[in-house]
Amino acid sequence: MPPLFEKRILCIGAGYVGGPTMAMIASRCPQYQVTLVDINHEKIAAWQTDELPIYEPGLLRLVQEARGRNLFFSTDIPACIREADIIFVSVNTPTKTFGEGAGKAADLQYWEKTARSILQASQHDKIIVEKSTLPVRTAKAMERILNQSGKKVRFEVLSNPEFLAEGTAVRDLENPDRVLIGSRETDSGLCARQQLVDIYANWVPREKILTSNVWSAELSKLAANAFLAQRISSINSISVLCEQTHADIVEVSRAIGMDRRIGSRFLDASVGFGGSCFKKDILNLVYICEHYGLSEIARYWQSVLLINEYQQNRFVKTMLHEMFNTVAGKRITLFGFAFKKDTGDTRESPGIWIARKLLAERAQVVVTDPQALDNARQELKDALDAVEFEPDPYRAARGAHAVAVITEWDLYRDLAWERVYDSMEKPAFVFDGRNILPHPRLYDIGFSVFPIGRPALRQF
Ligand code: NAD
Ligand code: UGA
Predict the structure, then answer these.
(1) For this structure, is 277 an active site residue?
(2) What is residue 148's predicted lDDT score, i.e. its pLDDT?
(3) Has residue 150 got a pLDDT over 90?
(4) In 3D, which of 286, 279, 410 has the Cα closest to residue 352?
(5) pLDDT digits (tens, 9 = 90+) for 346-357
(6) What CA dihedral angle connects 336, 367, 372 and 450, to 10 degrees?
(7) Residues near 360 by Cβ (< 8 Å), separated by ≥ 6?
(8) What's the longest Cα–Cα distance across the chain?
(9) Whose CA is nearest to atom 4 of ligand 2?
């Protein structure tokens, strides 16, 4: 006899958000049946093996604990929709690349297709949960598609944006700062909201479960990402001034971060932020502001992206300038290609931009990364002849004129840097785009070291 479950939860979209989120719900709520579906058959097949489609610390253990017990994967989307009581939608919502709003607005085609599949397959009332990040007021469009078809099935649409960060997804889901649930403030809206609160209350303390109206929940997600990205652009803008004045950005970050009103997190100057969401969500915010005629507000948020591009550009310009204004024919090794440590995700990674700029300067680019080489090959697939991909950092650095740290993987800090130095061309350069290396020690070994926002250590 199959076990009887209290609720049947479905998630459409088995990616970086859907996979870990459903694994956490299944792990903490064995009384619910949790199913993940996706149009990508390979992904669904991979979720059923121990070679998961994404790298995320702690995720495999979580999946293994629940898989086959109350966590299931399928490509039969209509059948799973029919059975489900609550459907989370976590399909991708990239930036539109065509037509009206191209380059800014969210491309909602996957979202709308999902809404229509839900409508078509449903035979009883359901709660639909927006998990994807969406423009404010998208729930309205979802409701219109679902509830104005003349079908005698009712759908209540909730907004439950996800705040997990990649690399720490399991920890973030296990112990979130908050869970946000937006609903209509009607009887049926409040009842649906309560059902979602009850799911999270299985492991999240009640005081961390916030409820709000739908539009506040949708907008809070865009605003949270915009604020986080803004902090990085702010500290990166100060890093430029540090380099001109011999102030040290690490000392400045520490000094301002100890002010509790500012807080110490997200103040690490870097080669620029990457990832699939910050740029996309800010562009989306800018587009919405423009839609409402708020051009000053749109420009304010756009500037966060401008500083980020400036910082990435500046990194390559420094490399070029310090390496005697030419990198043509020089072997340059990028240490890391993921957009941050502890993930294999390379979407919008600064590494992409930097590799392309270096290739345009006719450098021989070598990429090494412990988790992201497959994705790196995809990102640079039009330049595979010109780029070498090498998992071993020592081999990757052999014969190089320069090493540039793009991702803050711990392993780079702990390398035998004497060995790296001995194998490189001289003079040997290190450009530390993450300020993670022991700079004085590298200088003593013989490197010329160029951090971000800290005094350069030149041998000449
Ligand atoms: P992803 O690309 O990893 O996963 C999305 C999945 O949806 C893909 O596997 C795709 O095949 C599937 N899909 C697309 N259309 C479908 C359809 N019609 N039916 C079934 N499956 C379909 O994307 P992601 O990184 O998980 O992001 C999903 C959403 O969550 C986005 O809106 C993103 O902004 C938001 N978000 C992402 C993160 C993150 O850290 N990646 C964090 C918070 C929020
Ligand atoms: C970010 C947010 O942190 C999540 O809350 C949100 O859910 C998610 O976006 C999303 O909506 O997708 P994520 O992009 O996975 O998460 O990773 P972050 O830790 O935010 O890092 C983003 C980028 O900023 C990385 O390239 C990182 O290296 C960079 N960063 C971060 C800095 O350059 N300096 C810092 O101090 C912090």
Answers:
(1) yes
(2) 87
(3) no
(4) 279
(5) 999 999 999 999
(6) 10
(7) none
(8) 78
(9) 165
Give first-to-last CA distance, the chain, whole Å: 77
pLDDT above 90: residue 149: no
Asked if residue 417 has its Cβ within 6 Å of ligand 2, the reply is no
Residue 3 pLDDT exceeds 70: no
- How confident is the model at residue 378, as a pLDDT? 98
- Which ligand is the nearest neighbour of the Cα of 132? 1
Q: Which pLDDT value is given to residue 2?
A: 61
Three-state DSSP state, 267? coil
At residue 71's C-alpha, the angle toward residues 61 and 52, to 5°, is: 45
**For residues 380-397, b (16+ Cβ closer than 10 Å) or e, as one string?**
beeeeeebebbeebeebb
For residue 427, whether the previous peptide bond is cis, meaning omega lies within 30 degrees of 0, is yes
Q: Where are the beta strands (DSSP E) in 141-279?
A: 155-159, 179-183, 209-213
CB atoms within 10 A of CB 71: 24
**Preceding amide of 391 cis, omega within 30:** no
pLDDT, one tens digit per residue, over 288-299 is: 999 999 999 999
Mean pLDDT value across residues 73-99: 97
76 phi, psi to nearest 5 deg: -85, 80
Instruction: List phi, psi (to 5°) of 333.
Output: -105, 125
User: pLDDT per residue over 172-224, tens digit each?
Assistant: 999 999 999 999 999 999 999 999 999 999 999 999 999 999 999 999 999 99
Q: At 386, phi and psi to the nearest 5?
A: -95, -10
Q: What's the rounded Cα separation, in Å, for the pair 146 and 267?
A: 43
Ligand nearest to the CA of 20: 1
Q: Residue 456: what are its φ and ψ, rounded to 5°? A: -70, 150
Q: Are strands 402-405 and 429-432 parallel, antiparallel or unpaired?
A: parallel
pTM equals 0.97
Residues 271 and 452 sit within 8 Å (Cβ to Cβ): yes
User: Which one is catalytic: 11, 29, 242, 277?
Assistant: 277
